[in-house]
Amino acid sequence: MGAAAVTLISVLGVWAVWRVMVVTGLGQQTEEAALDGAGRFQGAFAPLADPVLRLGELRWLVAGSLVAVAVALARRRPLVAVQVAVLIAGANVTTQVVKADVLYRPDHLVGWNSGVNTLPSGHTTVAASVWAGLLLAVPRGWRPVVALGGAAATSAMGVATIVDRWHRPSDVVAALLVVLAWAALICALTPRSAADQPTEAGGGFTVTVAVLLGVVALVTGVVAVPAIATVAGFGPLPTSGMMTAYAGAVLAVISASLGTTAVLLVVRQATARSR
């Protein structure tokens, strides 16, 4: 029931993010301010962002998927391997279909990529789905460690897409929610045969990592919201306003990445525990 609720909330979250940040003029203006701020440092930060963005290419999606499936098969869990494959494929296909054929972007602004929908982010979906698949595949005791790695990796990918002005913050957040929706759905459908063995440990560390990720997500989110809100709807912005929006966007992406990872860790451990 909990995993199914997370799936529903995530789907509604994608719609809400799109409806507020993409469909409305105020949402578009807010994100455009963040991109203007990113543009001021793009030349300096691009060398750091470019190697991260290359990890969102198809070859790395395939490689990461094979690793996650191989881990499940090495544990003699063929059903989990199928779940991993369905999760990764489902999330990435959903992102591409939703972006190209379902959602749209009104022409409220004249400027970068105006009128072309970029939500959800494909690169973020690649990174988040591979790590989510690995989280499903590894033994119970390793999931908190994988969650920490996944939170760091997806944060890096999401921030990189903003630094290089490939995506807006809402694109990244929507992609994270797409992956969470698929992962939670898979967890909700976990049969008894795919559950953890009674001998598998991994309780206390899971709580520690989930709480840590949740607290950091909450703190960064609390800082990000007013940082973004202070520049929303004020027309042409001074440099300080652009930088405030840029910082708020980066913090919002990190908050979403850590928060969704924490939720997935809890959901996976709960639904996979030994009956």
UniProtKB/TrEMBL annotation:
Which of UniProt's keywords are assigned here? Membrane, Transmembrane, Transmembrane helix
Query: Is Transmembrane one of the keywords?
Result: yes
What stretches pass through the bilayer?
A: 58-74, 79-98, 118-138, 145-166, 172-190, 202-225, 245-267
Q: Which CDD domains match?
A: PAP2_like (cd01610)
Q: What SMART domains does this protein's entry cite?
A: acidPPc
Q: Which residues form the Phosphatidic acid phosphatase type 2/haloperoxidase domain?
A: 76-187
Q: Per its UniProt record, what SUPFAM superfamilies does this chain match?
A: Acid phosphatase/Vanadium-dependent haloperoxidase
Q: Does the keyword Transmembrane apply?
A: yes
Pfam families this protein is in?
PAP2
Q: Tell me the protein's name.
A: Phosphatase PAP2 family protein
Origin species: Myceligenerans indicum
